[in-house]
């Protein structure tokens, strides 16, 4: 079935760039990147990360854009049209992966809404013990976690149902610049605190003795998830791009914006955490337990806390809408449903699929020692994303290279092709095999 007739399109190049950067910039940047960097050699990690983003992430993003633009349809239709019928399963896998990631992303997205509201009402904890208790209490009360998950997914629905130009592009064009400005405001606040230097040193002191295969592997895994690659998000956004738009410049800018946000997030977190003498713990504990307490020690802390959680809400929304769009594009394109009906059906499925994840973080829904949410994350990001990445690398290198030759400047084309044929498949194959420990 064809779905190329009267498809929505991005209205402007900057809208396309901000929407794709919105997909890339997410909880992965603000939560995860600073830690992985702090613990893996600081500036040495940042340098290797940047190299991987541009040498492996960007070529794959280009492959997805090329397939999407040539196929001009949902992932399955585009792959069939641009590459051949036998490539359809790669699209199906991307759609499934987006649905799975969306299901648990909305749970954490709900937490960020709850914390923004708490910050506005001044009801965040002021010491680590009480903040820890409050967070533990919240995530183990299914009713409120599910209510906020519902709210988050309802907002995503409200945006995606308005389409590409009127929904996704409009939201990202307004809120991505807001995100950049607020992030810089927070970084300035954090870096000008007394004692900020110690945090900066922890984050950035280059330690080249930490460069080893495990570190390169975590940089590669982080780059991959952070750029939303391998699961047809970039293919879908590329399919809404006009034929005469350049691809290389935007791909470069998207990778740059994504790396910039991840890097600055570290400049917000560590100087503040160290300035007030806290331990830089990991993951949810840091954002939802330590940081609220850190903010409570600052002048106008409630205001800065609200800005921080609002940033998390925006970054999570712009990512979740991209996953939702991938699945909706498929439902509307392949099954001829209206956008409204398709979006409603997809959010309902994603919401229901997310309920076990929502319940599991409070304990009690473990599978072989991992919470249901972690199992979903494992399946999507450690299994499906790398397989998809290898698929798009090989497609770029061997299947659509003819189209690419016409679309990419000559010099870039040869480098890109080499990266797709050799470097990316080997590197990703390595992440896949080594990263598969439960
Ligand atoms: N890139 C997003 C982040 O860093 C996550 C994401 C993965 C979004 C896959 C879409 C698809 O949080």
Description of the molecule:
79% of the residues lie in helices and 1% in strands. It has helices at 13-24, 27-39, 43-71, 75-83, 88-120, 128-139, 142-160, 163-191, 196-204, 213-226, 233-238, 248-275, 283-296, 301-335, 339-360, 372-399, 401-407, 410-435; strands spanning 366-367, 370-371. It contains 18 helices and 2 strands. The protein is an all-alpha fold and 438 residues long. Helix 7 (142-160) crosses helix 14 (301-335) and helix 14 (301-335) packs across helix 15. It binds phenylalanine (PHE). Phenylalanine binds next to helix 1, helix 2, helix 10 and helix 14.
Set down the secondary structure blueprint:
Blueprint lengths: L12 H12 L2 H13 L3 H29 L3 H9 L4 H33 L7 H12 L2 H19 L2 H29 L4 H9 L8 H14 L6 H6 L9 H28 L7 H14 L4 H35 L3 H22 L5 E2 L2 E2 H28 L1 H7 L2 H26 L3
Antiparallel strand pairs: 1-2
The structure holds phenylalanine.
Phenylalanine (PHE) binds next to helix 1, helix 2, helix 10 and helix 14.
């Amino acid at each position: 079935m064809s779905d190329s007739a009267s498809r929505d399109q991005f209205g402007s190049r900057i809208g396309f760039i901000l929407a794709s950067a919105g997909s890339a910039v997410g909880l992965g940047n603000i939560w995860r990147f600073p830690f992985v960097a702090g613990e893996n050699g600081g500036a040495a990690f940042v340098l290797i990360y940047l190299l991987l983003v541009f040498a492996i992430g960007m070529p794959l993003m280009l492959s997805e854009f090329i397939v999407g633009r040539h196929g001009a349809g949902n992932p399955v239709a585009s792959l069939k049209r641009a590459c051949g019928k036998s490539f359809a399963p790669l699209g199906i896998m991307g759609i499934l992966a987006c649905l799975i990631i969306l299901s648990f992303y909305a749970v954490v997205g709900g937490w960020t809404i709850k914390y923004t509201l708490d910050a506005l009402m001044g009801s965040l904890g002021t010491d680590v013990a009480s903040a820890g208790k409050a967070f533990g209490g919240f995530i183990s009360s299914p009713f409120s976690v599910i209510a906020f998950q519902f709210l988050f997914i309802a907002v995503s629905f409200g945006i995606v149902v308005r389409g590409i130009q009127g929904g996704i592009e409009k939201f990202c064009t307004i809120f991505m610049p807001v995100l950049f400005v607020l992030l810089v405001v927070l970084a300035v606040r954090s870096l000008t605190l007394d004692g900020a230097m110690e945090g900066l040193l922890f984050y950035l002191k280059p330690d080249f003795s930490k460069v080893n295969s495990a570190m390169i592997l975590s940089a590669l895994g982080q780059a991959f998830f952070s750029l939303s690659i391998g699961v047809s998000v970039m293919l879908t956004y590329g399919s809404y791009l006009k034929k005469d738009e350049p691809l290389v410049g935007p791909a470069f800018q998207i990778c740059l914006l994504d790396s910039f946000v991840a890097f600055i997030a570290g400049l917000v977190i560590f100087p503040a955490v160290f300035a007030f003498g806290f331990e830089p713990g990991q993951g949810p504990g840091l954002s939802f337990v330590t940081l609220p307490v850190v903010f409570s020690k600052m002048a106008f802390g409630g205001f800065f806390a609200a800005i921080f959680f609002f940033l998390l809400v925006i970054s999570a929304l712009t990512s979740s809408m991209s996953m939702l769009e991938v699945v909706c594009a498929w439902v509307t394109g392949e099954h001829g449903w209206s956008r409204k009906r398709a979006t409603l059906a997809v959010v309902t499925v994603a919401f229901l699929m997310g309920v076990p994840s929502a319940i599991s973080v409070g304990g009690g829904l473990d599978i072989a020692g991992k919470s249901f949410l972690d199992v979903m994350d494992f399946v999507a990001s450690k299994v499906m994303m790398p397989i998809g990445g290898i698929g798009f690398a090989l497609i770029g290198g061997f299947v659509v290279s003819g189209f690419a030759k016409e679309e990419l400047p000559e010099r870039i084309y040869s480098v890109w092709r080499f990266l797709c044929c050799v470097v990316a498949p080997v590197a990703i194959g390595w992440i896949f095999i080594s990263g598969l420990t439960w």
